């Protein structure tokens, strides 16, 4: 009896646990977001006017194009840097691995605000980088590296590199070293081993990192606000302006929906084209 | 827009407390003077029987203020005042009204925003039977709000470079040949269109309604010389102090701080400054009832209380009777005093109520473009 009742309770408990997540998602995310979608087509009047404004090539289209441009560029740089770091980390000696771990984890733990201000001190016109280059007479005028899109991309890349390293390093670590040795033994030079064996085998990690970093980067708020000199307005900030300052909730809602659809499309495309399924599990 | 100013005042006040330049009692009085207090209970305050919820822009919890506030206002009114520091932005006030459960009794808000919300039927009219129209600068007793203090958008400049012939107008601000160096302006537009039009030769008394096309053409002209459109008051101060810019359009409170910090290496002027009001407002259906809210607003009109506000937050008194009580050392900060006001233009909040959304979007597109 006791056993049966325990089993029964266990069954009920398992079922309850199974349903918790979907129910939470539904009540805390899907239902409120349905409200956001309805605002986007009802405020201030019924119709698709807000979406038209986003897509029609005006200021809001520019915000989206700017966001995508910055996101794609910073993602590409992040993946490149992250790949090299991961390779170095996974393939290196014990000492090299430890040093790299420190270099990856310490910035990872520092707040995004502090990092953005740190870059500002380095990059601005009278900052450390320009000061050093001018003192050594390599340049005569400041390079204009602070408070613009360049500075924003530097700050974003620095923030996202650790996030790209983890999935790539995980996949690289799983690569069977004996395959690399076998290729070498069969006469392939190191460049060929890397290009024909290592790179293809690490691609699942690269794609996973790519999707994650790209999704991350379209939603940046603080870094562009601090490093962009007020000029680099990305979608997240533009939504904030519409919600709290101009109270044009319809437009803010429509921008959120477009951003979500964009991210969904990116993930969906990666999922289909690149067989994301094979490395999600 | 000017909600940013209020948050900034609180940051400054807290800085001064931690630096020891004011004591805790003065700090608390400063918060009390405005109702500019942080949420102390860890969450938004809710009005219950006998409570009055004042909404402001606090961010840092200050556990000790509650008794000070109750001592200050509660004793005379019999109301238990609670503070919600979550910020009465235009969007947040609209959300309160739309939800049907208004939790705030009195909000410190931008008079332009409250007018547009008021025209949409969301705001109580100020009851001038309770609130005294005579205790506020003329022209700042609005239908849906009443000025509670003032602050100014002014020219701050590098006095170590320009002390011989300091800038005296927005035309000078735009003149990068005579006054070389980078500039900074406000990211959230307020005051910038007025500055541009004055630089383009529009007389101070003929600014409103603002000619947007003309203002934006002039703003484009200065754009290559702007190193940053500042977002927070701290950023504007840093840009001036570190010499990243030689001139800036900044709040007079921050200008004054940089001047002190740099021992006068950076200075500022009220010449052609743009004086803006902040206002008390009451959302329709407020929990403590309209009358209680109006009584709180009337209470805050007391001139001595407003001088404390100037001493702690640096914002100019709304009640003209307060200027006589301002000590000599604070006269320069008193942006609404007759001497200082004579140099400035008053911001027309009705224009902002009707046009600020369109103007802000256009401004941000210009800044980013």
DSSP, total strands of chain A: 0
Biggest interface and which pair forms it? A-B, 24 and 28 residues
Shape of chain A: globular
Query: What is the rounded distance between the termini of chain A?
Result: 39 Å
Low-confidence parts of chain A: 1-8
CATH superfamily of the largest domain in chain B, please?
Periplasmic binding protein-like II
* Oligomer designation: heterodimer
H/E series of chain A:
HHHHHHHHHHHHH
Q: Rounded to an integer, what's the Rg of chain A over CA atoms?
A: 24 Å
Describe this structure in words.
The complex is a heterodimer of chains A (281) and B (369). Chain A is mainly alpha-helical and 281 residues long. Chain A has helices at residues 2-42, 49-55, 59-91, 94-109, 112-123, 128-135, 149-174, 177-185, 190-218, 222-227, 235-245, 249-273, 277-280. Helices cover 81% and strands 0% of the residues of chain A. In chain A, helix 3 crosses helix 7 (149-174), helix 5 (112-123) packs across helix 7 (149-174) and helix 8 (177-185) packs antiparallel against helix 9 (190-218). The two termini of chain A are 39 Å apart. In chain A, 32% of the residues are buried. Residues 1-8 of chain A have low confidence and may be disordered. Chain B has 369 residues and is of the alpha/beta class. In chain B, strand 1, helix 3 and strand 2 form a beta-alpha-beta unit. The radius of gyration of chain B is 20 Å and the shape is globular. The model of chain B is unreliable at 36-48 and 58-71 (pLDDT under 50).
Question: What tags apply to this protein structure?
Answer:
heterodimer, A: 281 residues, mainly alpha, MetI-like fold, 2 domains, globular, disordered N terminus, B: 369 residues, alpha/beta, D-Maltodextrin-Binding Protein, domain 2, ten-stranded mixed beta sheet, 41% helix
Topology of helices and strands:
The complex is a heterodimer of chains A (281) and B (369).
Chain A lengths: L1 H41 L6 H7 L3 H33 L2 H16 L2 H12 L4 H8 L13 H26 L2 H9 L4 H29 L3 H6 L7 H11 L3 H25 L3 H4 L1
Chain B lengths: L2 H17 L4 H11 L16 E5 L9 H13 L2 E5 L5 H10 L6 E4 L1 H9 L26 E13 H4 L7 H5 L8 E4 L5 H8 L12 H11 L3 E5 L2 H9 L5 E5 H10 L4 E16 L8 H10 L3 H11 L2 E2 L20 H4 L3 E2 L2 H20 L1
Helix pairs in contact in B: 1-2, 2-3, 2-13, 5-15, 8-9, 10-11
């Amino acid at each position: 009896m006791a056993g049966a009742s325990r089993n029964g309770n266990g069954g009920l408990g398992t079922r309850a646990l199974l349903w918790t997540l979907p129910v939470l998602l539904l009540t805390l995310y899907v239902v409120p977001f349905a409200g956001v979608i309805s605002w986007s087509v009802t405020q201030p009047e019924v119709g698709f006017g807000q979406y038209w404004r986003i897509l029609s090539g005006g200021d809001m289209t520019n915000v989206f194009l700017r966001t995508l441009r910055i996101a794609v560029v910073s993602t590409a740089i992040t993946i490149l840097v992250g790949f090299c770091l991961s390779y170095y980390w996974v393939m290196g000696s014990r000492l090299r691995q430890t040093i790299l771990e420190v270099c990856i984890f310490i910035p990872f733990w520092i707040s995004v605000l502090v990092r953005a201000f740190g870059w500002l001190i380095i990059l601005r016109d009278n900052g450390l980088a320009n000061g050093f280059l001018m003192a050594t007479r390599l340049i005569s005028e400041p390079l204009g590296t602070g408070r613009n899109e360049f500075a924003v991309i530097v700050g974003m890349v620095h923030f996202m590199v650790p996030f790209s390293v983890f999935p790539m390093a995980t996949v690289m670590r799983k690569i069977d070293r004996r395959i690399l040795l076998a290729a070498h033994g069969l006469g392939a030079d190191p460049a060929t081993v890397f290009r024909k064996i290592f790179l293809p085998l690490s691609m699942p990690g690269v794609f996973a990192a790519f999707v994650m970093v790209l999704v991350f980067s379209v939603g940046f708020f603080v870094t562009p606000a601090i490093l962009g000199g007020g000029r680099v307005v990305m979608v997240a900030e533009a939504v904030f302006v519409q919600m709290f300052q101009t109270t044009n909730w319809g437009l803010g809602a429509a921008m959120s929906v477009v951003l979500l659809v964009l991210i969904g499309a990116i993930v969906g495309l990666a999922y289909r084209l690149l067989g994301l399924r094979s490395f999600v599990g | 827009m000017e909600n940013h100013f209020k948050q900034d005042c609180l940051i400054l006040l807290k800085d001064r407390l931690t630096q020891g330049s004011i004591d805790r009692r003065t700090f608390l009085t400063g918060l009390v003077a405005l109702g500019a207090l942080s949420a102390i209970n860890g969450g938004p305050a809710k009005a219950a029987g006998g409570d009055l919820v004042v909404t402001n822009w606090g961010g840092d919890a200050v556990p000790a203020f509650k008794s000070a506030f109750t001592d200050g206002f509660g004793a005379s009114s019999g109301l238990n005042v609670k503070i919600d520091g979550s910020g009465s932005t235009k969007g947040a006030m609209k959300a309160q009204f739309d939800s049907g459960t208004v939790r705030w009794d009195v909000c410190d808000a931008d008079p332009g925003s409250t007018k547009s919300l008021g025209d949409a039927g969301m705001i109580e009219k100020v009851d001038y039977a309770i609130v005294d129209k005579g205790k506020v600068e003329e022209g700042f007793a609005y239908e849906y709000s009443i000025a509670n203090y003032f602050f100014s958008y002014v020219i701050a400049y590098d006095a170590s470079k320009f002390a011989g012939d300091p800038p005296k107008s927005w035309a000078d601000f735009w003149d990068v040949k005579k006054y070389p160096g980078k500039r900074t302006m406000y990211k959230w537009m307020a005051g910038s269109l007025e500055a541009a039009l004055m630089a383009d030769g529009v007389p101070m008394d003929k600014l409103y309604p603002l000619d947007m096309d003309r203002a934006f053409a002039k703003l484009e002209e200065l754009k290559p010389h702007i190193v940053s459109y500042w977002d927070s008051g701290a950023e504007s101060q840093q840009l001036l102090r570190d010499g990243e810019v030689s001139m800036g359009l900044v709040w007079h409170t921050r200008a004054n701080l940089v001047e002190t910090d740099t021992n006068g290496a950076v200075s500022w002027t009220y010449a052609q400054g743009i004086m803006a009001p902040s206002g008390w407002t009451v959302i329709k259906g407020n929990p403590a009832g309209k009358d209680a809210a109006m009584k709180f607003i009337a209470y805050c009109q007391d001139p001595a209380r407003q001088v404390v506000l100037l001493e702690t937050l640096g914002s100019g008194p709304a009640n003209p009777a307060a200027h006589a009580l301002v000590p000599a050392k604070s006269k320069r900060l008193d942006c609404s005093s007759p001497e200082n006001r004579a140099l400035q233009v008053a911001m027309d909040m009705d224009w902002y109520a009707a046009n600020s959304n369109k103007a802000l979007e256009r401004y941000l597109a210009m800044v980013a473009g």
